[in-house]
Amino acid sequence: MPIKPSEKEEQYFREQELKRQLARARAAQEAMAAAEKQRLKDLHYMHCPKCGQKLAPENYGPVEIDVCAGCKGLWLDAHELDHILASKTQTGPLRKFLKILGA
C-alpha cells in the first residue's frame, strides 16, 4: 500500500521544482540576451555611425583610426585622440586640424 507524502513534503518538492524551472528560465533568458548582443555586434561592428558604410582601418602614426568609405568620416576609439595628441612627430592633416582647434 503506497504511503501518501505529508503536506510539508509535497510543498517542499513543489518549491524545488519551481526553483528548477525558474533557474532554467533565467538561463534561457540570459542565453537569448547574449545571442542578441552578439547579433547586434555582428550587424554593426566596423560600420559608420553616420551613414552605415563599412569602416576601413588606416594607420595614423601610433594609432589605427577608422575611416568611412562612404562619407570619409574619421572615427577614433577610446584614448586614440590622446595618443595622436601625445605624438610630437605627427604632422598630418588630422594633427593640423587639432592644432587649429587648440588641442
Query: How can the largest sheet be summarized?
Result: 3 strands, antiparallel
Number of domains: 2
Coarse structural class: alpha+beta
Strand content: 5-15%
**Mean of pLDDT:** 84
Gross geometry: rod-shaped
- Provide the low-confidence segments as ranges: none
N-to-C CA distance: 88 Å
Radius of gyration: 28 Å
Q: Order of strands across the biggest sheet?
A: 1-2-3
Task: Summarize the structure in words.
The chain is α+β, with helices and mostly antiparallel strands. It folds into two domains: 45 residues; 47 residues, no CATH class. Helices cover 52% and strands 14% of the residues. The chain is built from three helices and three strands; from the N terminus they run H-E-E-E-H-H. The chain has a three-stranded antiparallel sheet. Strand 2 and strand 3 form a beta hairpin. It is rod-shaped, with a radius of gyration of 28 Å. It starts with 6 loop residues before the first helix and ends with a helix. The mean pLDDT is 84.
At a glance:
With 103 residues, the chain is of the alpha+beta class. It contains three helices and three strands.
How is this fold's topology laid out?
Elements: H1 7-44, E1 55-60, E2 63-68, E3 74-75, H2 80-86, H3 93-101
Antiparallel strand pairs: 1-2, 2-3
Label this structure with key terms.
2 domains; alpha+beta; rod-shaped; 14% strand; 3 helices; 103 residues
